[in-house]
């Protein structure tokens, strides 16, 4: 079994969606597909993340698309630099723009699979597309932009330091 | 103190983001502003919803924008029909497209305020803009589409019934 990108590159991560060290977050795990193009993840929604009865909460889908797409951007950045996730210096990206199109209602109780890739160049701002399937059914599609940053500097700026 | 739109129109709601009856969800509460244009909400993120250290998880902001914007769409629909939220038949909308632009990092530990409105006509598909502020600082902006639906029919279709 391969090791997830999150566990390789940020084992101390505390993000609610994808932090390996978050005590009770979603623990999204993303992996390179063997095709060398796509980054994939699977996730079975906890019943608490219901939206309408019997349907997955769109906000959960947004969280999955957000974190998984961001890890896709970071995976592409590592590869563009010819080095493995987990090598230093660490590569960090944040969400610049999150876009999720809800094509069909997503049923609760079915494992979801995510497949994402960078569309176009891998740059400071990279565009990531992400497909979400419930079983075989494409139910949502992400189209987002992730920005490579220095996160310590970002946090300092946000708190006026 | 006014009653929130969620408690007026869907006191039995189980949505993780905005369901009044969810045992431990976000319990987002949305209110008409007295200006008759904006729908507003405030929310102080629980520390579990951290993204990067010291910063609010973008996925939480996406959930806030999603539910609050949807309630903005529903509030406008009730008003367009000249009746109060809570009157029957109930009006339900779902997210067609969620768009969130992250303008600045959002610091943890500051109450967030949301201000949303329908931009353009109130139709089966309505566009809702939503501003998110941490204190006085605009940190994120939503631009999304919400679709008026029969949610029981949607759930049946999602489960192949």
Automatic annotation (TrEMBL), chains A, B:
GO BP field: fatty acid metabolic process
Domain of life: Bacteria
Alphabetical list of InterPro entries matching this protein: HotDog_dom_sf (IPR029069), THEM4/THEM5_acyl-CoA_thioest (IPR052365)
Record keywords, A-Z: Cytoplasm, Fatty acid metabolism, Hydrolase, Lipid metabolism
Gene3D superfamilies found in the cross-reference section: Hotdog Thioesterase
Gene Ontology terms for molecular function: hydrolase activity
PANTHER family: ACYL-COENZYME A THIOESTERASE THEM4
Name by which UniProt lists this protein: Thioesterase family protein
């Amino acid at each position: 079994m391969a090791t997830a990108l999150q566990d390789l590159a940020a084992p101390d991560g505390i993000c609610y969606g994808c932090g390996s060290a978050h005590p009770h977050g979603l623990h999204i795990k993303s992996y390179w597909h063997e095709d060398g193009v796509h980054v994939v993840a699977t996730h079975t929604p906890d019943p608490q993340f219901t939206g309408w009865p019997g349907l997955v909460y769109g906000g959960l889908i947004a969280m999955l698309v957000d974190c998984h797409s961001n890890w896709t951007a970071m995976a592409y950045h590592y590869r563009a630099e010819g080095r493995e996730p987990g090598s230093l210096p660490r590569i960090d990206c944040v969400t610049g723009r999150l876009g999720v199109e809800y094509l069909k209602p997503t049923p609760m109780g079915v494992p979801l699979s995510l497949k994402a890739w960078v569309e176009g160049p891998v740059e400071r701002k990279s565009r990531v597309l992400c497909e979400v399937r419930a079983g075989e059914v494409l139910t949502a599609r992400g189209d987002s932009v992730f920005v490579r940053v220095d996160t310590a500097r970002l946090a300092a700026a946000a708190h006026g330091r």
